[in-house]
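Per reviewer request, we include the raw input and output of the structure prediction for the construct analysed in the revised manuscript.
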Amino acid sequence: MKFKTNSVLAGAGAAAVLLLPALALAQAAATPAPAAAPKFDTGDTAWMLTATALVLMMTIPGLALFYGGMVRKKNVLATVMQSFAITCMISVLWLIVGYSLAFTPGSSIIGGLSRIFMAGLTLDSVHDLAKTVPETVFMCFQLTFAIITPALIAGAFAERMKFSAMMWFMALWSLIVYAPIAHWVWGGGFLGDWGVLDYAGGTVVHINAGVAGLVCALVIGKRKGFGTENMAPHNLVYSVIGASLLWVGWFGFNAGSAVGASPNAGMAMAVTQFASAAAALAWMFAEWVTRGKPSVLGIISGAVGGLVAITPASGFVTPMGALAIGIIAGLVCFWGATGLKKAMGYDDSLDAFGVHGIGGFVGAILTGVFAVEMIGGEGKKGLIDGNAGQVLTQLWGSLVCIAWCAIATFIILKVVDALIGLRVTTEEEIEGLDINLHGETIH
């Protein structure tokens, strides 16, 4: 009996040993597998790191030099200070809440707070809009857009706004105007759902900044001596260097918006070059015919106007479409910065509205005219080769952004003016902002 019992126990033990692997497999199958780490593409990541640096270069030193050369000598330090200070302040605001409001899931109007203070951002984090690169890279790339947009506005009120007022205005504007509109178009908001096309920021950046600049110019008023005193640029060499840096940086702006080292990035780069060159020539020849001489300021302004106009279209058009967009933008921006400004009588100091507002609007509409389905149609609802429906969609999207930007900018300016005042005193303006606002001058 004892022998039989031992035999039974031994047999049971052997069966249990044989069953263990099966039980282990069953348990493993029942346990959810850990999520696979994202597979980042090193080529895409390298390109996006480069594009991010290029777009940051557009503001510092590109825009700083472009604007700094166009003001009078007594205001050059104050002007470059604006670009540098805005870069610093928007970077911190983006970390705190700006990125979260623009690019995290929320409503169709505004993003959520899941990335407030960059909560949850890790080495393995990925954003749905850029699945082959780390979210840290995508976040920094979008930060450079958030930086340059308010910096562009400063050209409209150059030489007369308080530095303190500028800082308050830009901080509020970036959260109340830029972040929501970026979300509407790119972050999962209603304009993207409508089918509005804005590859790299014609609406989000340029229409937005240009309209805000016009409102600033109207609310703050003209510079002392505007129309009677000589307000010629003090150093156009600075402005040429700045415009050149903007042009080079724009390849990061537009080709970087492909969010990868792809054929789309290559086409975006090509059309950016052709549009800018065509616009520069169009402005130059228009000025040559109407004013007798082609100016340095004119050709660099035309180049920037072409860069602005191709921005929303850069992922959707062919080189020939870009050529047409550039020519049209060069002519229309020349009119906007000269004829329209003179007719309306506003003092847009450095033509932020004439170049960026008008150029952005022209580019947004012409995107609908010249868009080609084979280039940008994938995933774009209803996009076919240049069609009236897309033009109407572009128009509605632009008008919505113009309305919100204009109303919100006006309110922000009035609040800041009531609290601390917007404008320097007459004496400070006459003597210059450099010495009065920053205690420094150049010789």
